[in-house]
Design brief:
The protein contains 9 helices and no strands. It has 192 residues and is mainly alpha-helical. It has one domain.
Length: 192
């Protein structure tokens, strides 16, 4: 079954009410759309975004079954197996054994935790924005294991490795994506 963004948003809100989780979903959606355009998949940007929007569908209610429960929920909805695989594999090596294969899946794996780290760093800034954040500042936060300790640096590094990118490239590109999409993220969050 093909989903519209509105249907995907309704599905997300069925299982997620926490503003933090909703904002994270919208952030990853927008970052994935940006990456689709940057990496030559502009015609699939909506699909990439849908994967980002739904990637943590199960996390708020079933954190101990993360990714596995999302797959079950999505299968019950009759959703596209490609969408289900992409969502499930972002937990590879963490909470499931489904490996990211497609470049889009690798981007999701790499950017998921990183968007959380970047957002946490932005909230510490007087501007509460990524617009004035420098790569140097982000790298400092990345190296500080106590800062946003729930964001797995190992998963971020593993994501960069999966993509064949230097860590700095992943950090810089994802920060650029969040800068470029910040207004859209804020607008979409108001609509939730």
């Amino acid at each position: 079954m093909e989903l519209t963004r509105e249907q995907a948003g309704a599905l997300l809100r069925r299982y997620n009410q926490e503003p933090f989780h909703l904002r994270h979903a919208v952030t990853v959606e927008a970052v994935m759309e940006w990456y689709a355009g940057q990496l030559g998949y502009a015609d699939e940007a909506d699909f990439w975004g849908m994967v980002g929007l739904l990637h943590d569908l199960d996390f708020e209610q079933w954190p101990d079954e993360h990714c596995r429960k999302a797959g079950q929920l999505m299968e019950a909805e009759g959703l596209d197996p490609r969408l289900i695989h992409a969502v499930v594999c972002h937990g590879w090596g963490i909470c499931c054994e489904v490996k990211p294969e497609h470049e889009m899946e690798k981007v999701l794996f790499a950017a998921d935790e990183l968007t959380g780290l970047i957002w946490a760093a932005a909230l510490m800034r007087p501007s509460k924005s990524v617009q004035d954040m420098e790569l140097k500042s982000l790298k400092k936060k990345f190296k500080d294991k106590k800062f946003a300790a729930g964001c797995s640096r190992e998963a971020i590094q593993q994501g960069a490795d999966l993509l064949g990118w230097e860590l700095d490239t992943l950090l810089e590109r994802t920060l650029e994506a969040m800068r470029a999409q910040e207004a859209l993220i804020n607008q979409r969050c108001e609509g939730l």
